Amino acid sequence: MIGTDELAALVAADIPPGAYVNLGIGLPTRVADHFAAGSGVVLHTENGMLGMGPQAHGDDVDPDLVNAGKVPVTELPGAAYFHHADSFAMMRGGHLDCCVLGAYQVSADGDLANWHTGRPDDIPAVGGAMDLAIGARETFVMMTLFAKDGTSKLVPACTYPLTGVRCVSRVYTDHAVFLLDRAGGVRVRELFGITLDELRRRVPVPLDAGPA
Amino acid sequence: MTTFPATAREAVAGIADGATVMLGGFGAAGQPVELIEALIDTGAGDLTVVNNNAGNGDRGLAALIALGRVRRIICSFPRQPDSWHFDRRYRAGEIELELVPQGNLAERIRAAGAGIGGFFTPTGYGTPLAEGKETRVIDGRGYVLEYPLAADYALIAAHTADAAGNLVYRKTARNFGPIMAAAARTTVAQVRAVVPVGGIDPEHVVTPSIYVDRVVRVEAP
Predict the structure, then answer these.
(1) What is the spatial distance between Cα B135 and Cα B124, in angstroms, rounded to a whole number?
(2) Contact B49, B21 (CB under 8 A)
(3) For residue A50, what are the β-bridge partners?
(4) Is the CB of B128 less than 8 angstroms away from the CB of A161?
(5) Where do the domains of chain B lie, and which CATH numbers do they carry?
(6) Is residue A211 exposed (0-12), middle (13-18) or buried (19+ Cβ within 10 Å)?
(7) Distance CA B142, CA A137 (A)
(8) CA distance B197 to chain A (A)
């Protein structure tokens, strides 16, 4: 098993220099701390900004400058602002190289569930999750592999309400990294302190361990 | 032609019971709090409100909801740690929610302002939020038909207006302002400064005056 920061560093290392990237709320925001100096990665926030900098503190807090999680952030040189329809056109139009999202479940063929538990007493909130999932050229998921009850979050078919269909191409977890071909094929790229046999016992999805 | 009422209360005059009102802002950023407070003072109720969220804390949209003035809200992200007024009304069945993915919400508003009768979007295809909607496969990809979303009034916050009614915004407070301004029959903008004509470089205008009916200056908080 590896820790969140190690995993975030792994995701960051897989994002090509100069990429335009959106990091979802929660775990994925940690990826921002691990881009190499001079990587040229440009962060997009769906409320209307490219070139988002780190979280703002103290005197740098500006109520007019927040990220998608409504957390005060900073702007980097070369930043740009735009309205919401433009911001989502950037995603939907396939201009964003990559997004990294959290998930409740991912299915073997790349379906994503991350916006609603489906419990009747829950107030649903979707935000930009559905647009990001299908809009970015690559959708990566970063999540713990197992739920609190020990069940796998990589599943044959999602039981939670879907966010997007066949949209996830990679799943980064604390136990393994999975590459999805979005036609049901799941390949294990690397393991973190777990054997392939044990992984196969606990994840109810056929796992290919061969080279790509 | 853009007019410049002296007070926020005059700026929101005419919003009747049952109106559809777009409120700019993403959380607190760009939320026209003073205009919403003026709207509260008018007593108008039975409103349909369009906003990304469903109120934060106790001010602005949250106060409008707390007072029971909102019959229906169209938004993408109602549930937040500080959305207690909405949460209470929703759980009591006192407010109707239409949940729309954020990009579809923005594009529906844009479409209304641009005179588009509907559009096919990939967002939401195959999910519960597309249930009952017309779909089509175009070039091998699934799309959902979404319709434009117009309003009687838009209340937005910009940073600066010139005396002609052109607007510029500040940082991420721009968010829904430009598209809501175009989608409403009457658009009211609150700004922190009004400068003479020529005070905004025409190359820098974000919302041209044609979309702006009333501008009121409020003191910066």
Answers:
(1) 10
(2) yes
(3) A44, A80
(4) yes
(5) 8-217 (3.40.1080.10)
(6) exposed
(7) 16
(8) 24
The CA distance from B65 to B47, in Å, is: 10
| Backbone dihedral region for residue B162 (phi beyond 0: left; psi -120 to 50: alpha; all else: beta) | beta
> Total domain count for chain A?
1
A198 catalytic per annotation: no
* Token reading at A208: 């290919």
Q: In this structure, what CATH number is given to the domain that contains residue A62?
A: 3.40.1080.10
Task: Provide the ipTM.
Answer: 0.96
The range of the structural domain enclosing residue A89 comes to 4-209
Residue B70: closest CA among B79, A106, B57, B51: B51
Min Cα separation A79/chain B (Å): 10
φ/ψ bin of A158: left (φ > 0), alpha (ψ from -120 to 50), beta (otherwise): beta
Half-sphere exposure of B164 (CA within 13 A, CB side): 14
Are the beta carbons of B174 and A82 separated by less than 8 Å? Answer: yes
CB contact under 8 A, B106 and A123: no
pLDDT digits (tens, 9 = 90+) for A129-177: 999 999 999 999 999 999 999 999 999 999 999 999 999 999 999 999 9
Mean pLDDT in residue range A117-138: 93
β pairing state of B160-162 and A168-173: unpaired
User: Tell me, what's the pLDDT at A26?
Assistant: 85
pTM of the predicted model as reported, rounded to 2 decimal places: 0.96
Does B174 have pLDDT greater than 90? yes
- Segment B116-140 mean pLDDT: 98
Q: Could you tell me if A128 lies within 8 Å of chain B, comparing CB atoms?
A: yes
Cβ of A126 and B178 within 8 Å?
no
Tokens of A187: 């390949």
- Give B-chain residues touching A88 at CB under 8 angstroms: 102-103, 106-107, 123
Tens-place pLDDT, residues A75-104: 999 999 999 999 999 999 999 999 999 999
Tens-place pLDDT, residues B187-206: 999 999 999 999 999 999 99
Q: Choose among A83, A111, A125: nearest Cβ to B78.
A: A125
Strand partners, A179: A170, A187
Closest residue of B to A49, CA-based?
B172
A112: contact with B, CB 8 A cutoff: no
Whether pLDDT at B221 is above 60 = no
A212: pLDDT strictly greater than 60: no
Q: Quick one: CA dihedral B1, B4, B8, B11, positive or negative?
A: negative
- Provide the shortest C-alpha distance from residue B179 to chain A (in Å): 7
